[in-house]
C-alpha cells in the first residue's frame, strides 16, 4: 500500500500532543474540493482591498500603467510556481502545513515556523479587517445621521465611529469562522465574483472619464532606468510578500483536493489569471482617478466616496466588505487556526483557534500606521523575507531529501523518523538562520542595502540550498528508507 493511502486507523502510537481530528489526514471521501472551488477561493482572496491598493499604489510609486502590469505579471508567475510546488504534498497526503513541516524541522522544531506563520497571518488579519471596516463605516455613514460626528470621541487612537465599524466587522468574521471550513468553501463561491462586478463598474467609469482606453495608458512613468529597476525589484518582492504566508500553508487547502489536477488547474485559474485581471482593473481605475481628480486614489472606499451617490457607495462598500471577509477568513484565519491547534491539540479545535486568532489580531492596531504606499511595500518585503526560508526548506525537504515520499505514521509519534535530536532537526534550524540572514542582511548592513529589495528570493534560495547541503552532510542518501540513518547520526 502506498504511503499516500495510509489511513489514520493504521497509525501507531498516536501521541495526543501531535494529533487530533483537525491535524489528521483528510479521508479520501472528504477530499471534495474541485478545480472550481480552488478557483473561487483564490478569486475571493485576490479580490480584496489590500490587493487592490497594492496594485494601484504602483502608480503612486511613479510607474506607468504598462510598467505596473508587467510587475504584477512577473510576481504572479513566481507565486503560482511556489504555490504549486508546496501544494503537492497537501493534496497527496491530505495533511495541513503544521504537520507537513515536522518532516523538515522535527516535531518540536516545527513550532518555530508554525508560530512565525501564525504571527504573520494574524498580523494580516488585522490589516485586512481594518481596511474592510472602512467600508462598513462608509455604509453606516450614509444610513445613520450624525455618524461622522462620532469621530470626535476617541477610542485607542481612532474615532468612535471607526471603532464601532471595526467591532461590527470583527463579529462578522467570528460568525463565518464558527461554522468551520465548509462555510469557508461555500462563502468563497459567491464572494469573489461579486467584487468583479464592482470592479467592472469602476473600470467602465474610468474609461468614460478618460473618453476611452487610450488616455488611461498614456500616463508617463516618473522613474528613470536605474530608478525603475530598483522600484521594480522592491515591488515584485512586495507583491510576492502579499501571499508569502499562503505559499507556506497552501497545503491547508490542497489537502481537501479531489486530485492533483484539481489543485493545479484551479490555482492556475484563480491566482495568476484573476490576480492579473484584478490588478489590471486596479491600475486602470487608479489611472482614471489621476485624470478625474488630478491625483492617484488607490483606496477604493475613498474613491467610492468621491461619487457623492449614496446608492453607489452602499453597493460598492458592501462588495468590498464581502471581499475582505472572503480573503481574511480564507487567507488569514485558516492558517493560524491550524497552527494553534497544532500547538495545543488537546485544548483547541479549528473553530476555537480561529476565534482566538481574531482576538489576538486586535493588538496589532493597524489604524495607527496603515494608509501609506511606501509603508505597505516595506512591510510586505519584511514578511516575504521572514517566510521565504521556511518555504525553501519545505520544498527542498519534499522534493530533494524525501523524493516526494512521506511516512504519515511518523508525523504523529515522538519516536519516528522525524524525531531527529529530541524533536529538533539541527540542519533545518541552521538553514533557517542562513536564509533569514540572507533575507535581512541588506537591512542591517548599509553597504548591502540593495540586497534587501530581493529579500524573499534570497530567503527561499539560501534556505533551499543550505538545507539540502546540510542534510547531505549528514547522509549521502536522500531516500525515505535511509532517514533512520540520518536520525541516528544526528543524534
From TrEMBL:
InterPro entries the UniProt entry points to: NCS1, Pur-cyt_permease, Uracil/uridine/allantoin_perm
Lipid bilayer topology: Multi-pass membrane protein
Keywords, sorted A to Z: Membrane, Transmembrane, Transmembrane helix
Subcellular localization(s) per the UniProt record: Membrane
TM regions (residue ranges): 33-52, 64-85, 105-127, 159-177, 189-208, 228-248, 269-293, 313-338, 350-370, 376-401, 422-445, 451-470
Recorded family membership: Belongs to the purine-cytosine permease (2.A.39) family.
Entries under NCBIfam families matching the protein: ncs1 (TIGR00800)
Name of the featured protein: NCS1 family nucleobase:cation symporter-1
Amino acid at each position: 500500500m502506498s504511503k499516500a493511502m495510509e489511513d489514520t486507523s493504521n497509525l501507531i502510537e498516536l501521541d495526543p500532543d501531535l494529533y487530533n481530528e483537525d491535524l489528521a489526514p483528510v479521508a479520501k471521501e472528504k477530499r471534495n474540493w474541485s478545480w472550481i472551488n480552488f478557483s473561487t477561493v483564490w478569486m475571493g482572496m485576490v479580490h480584496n482591498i489590500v490587493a487592490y491598493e497594492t496594485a494601484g499604489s504602483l502608480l503612486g510609486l511613479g510607474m506607468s500603467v504598462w510598467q505596473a502590469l508587467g510587475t504584477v505579471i512577473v510576481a504572479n508567475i513566481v507565486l503560482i510556481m511556489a504555490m504549486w510546488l508546496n501544494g503537492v504534498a497537501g493534496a497527496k497526503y491530505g495533511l495541513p502545513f503544521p504537520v507537513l513541516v515536522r518532516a523538515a524541522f522535527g516535531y518540536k522544531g516545527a513550532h518555530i515556523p508554525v508560530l512565525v506563520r501564525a504571527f504573520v497571518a494574524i498580523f494580516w488579519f488585522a490589516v485586512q479587517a481594518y481596511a474592510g471596516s472602512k467600508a462598513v463605516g462608509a455604509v453606516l455613514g450614509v444610513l445613520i445621521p450624525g455618524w461622522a460626528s462620532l469621530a470626535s470621541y476617541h477610542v485607542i487612537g481612532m474615532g468612535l465611529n471607526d471603532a464601532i465599524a471595526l467591532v461590527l466587522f470583527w463579529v462578522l468574521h467570528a460568525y463565518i469562522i464558527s461554522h468551520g471550513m465548509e462555510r469557508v468553501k461555500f462563502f468563497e463561491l459567491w464572494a469573489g465574483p461579486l467584487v468583479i462586478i464592482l470592479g467592472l463598474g469602476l473600470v467602465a467609469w474610468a474609461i468614460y472619464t478618460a473618453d476611452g482606453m487610450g488616455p488611461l495608458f498614456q500616463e508617463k512613468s516618473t522613474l528613470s532606468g536605474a530608478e525603475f529597476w530598483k522600484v521594480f525589484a522592491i515591488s515584485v518582492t512586495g507583491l510576492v510578500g502579499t501571499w508569502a504566508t499562503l505559499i507556506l500553508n497552501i497545503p491547508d487547502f490542497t489537502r481537501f483536493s479531489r486530485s492533483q489536477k484539481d489543485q493545479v488547474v484551479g490555482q492556475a485559474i484563480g491566482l495568476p489569471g484573476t490576480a492579473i485581471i484584478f490588478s489590471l482593473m486596479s491600475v486602470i481605475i487608479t489611472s482614471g482617478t489621476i485624470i478625474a481628480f488630478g491625483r492617484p486614489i488607490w483606496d477604493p472606499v475613498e474613491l467610492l466616496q468621491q461619487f457623492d451617490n449614496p446608492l453607489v457607495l452602499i453597493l460598492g462598500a458592501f462588495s468590498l466588505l464581502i471581499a475582505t471577509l472572503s480573503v481574511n477568513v480564507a487567507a488569514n484565519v485558516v492558517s493560524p487556526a491550524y497552527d494553534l491547534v497544532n500547538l495545543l491539540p488537546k485544548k483547541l479545535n479549528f473553530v476555537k483557534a480561529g476565534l482566538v486568532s481574531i482576538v489576538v489580531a486586535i493588538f496589532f492596531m493597524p489604524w495607527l500606521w496603515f494608509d501609506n504606499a511606501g509603508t505597505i511595500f516595506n512591510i510586505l518585503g519584511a514578511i516575504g523575507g521572514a517566510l521565504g526560508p521556511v518555504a525553501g526548506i519545505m520544498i527542498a525537504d519534499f522534493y530533494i531529501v524525501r523524493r516526494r515520499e512521506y511516512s504519515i505514521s511518523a508525523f504523529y509519534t515522538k519516536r519516528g523518523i522525524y524525531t531527529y535530536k529530541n524533536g529538533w532537526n539541527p540542519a533545518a534550524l541552521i538553514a533557517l538562520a542562513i536564509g533569514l540572514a540572507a533575507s535581512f542582511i541588506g537591512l542591517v548592513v548599509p553597504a548591502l542595502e540593495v540586497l534587501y529589495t530581493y529579500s524573499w528570493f534570497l530567503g527561499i534560495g539560501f534556505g533551499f540550498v543550505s538545507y539540502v547541503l546540510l542534510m547531505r552532510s549528514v547522509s549521502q542518501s536522500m531516500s525515505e528508507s535511509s532517514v533512520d540513518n540520518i536520525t541516528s547520526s544526528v543524534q
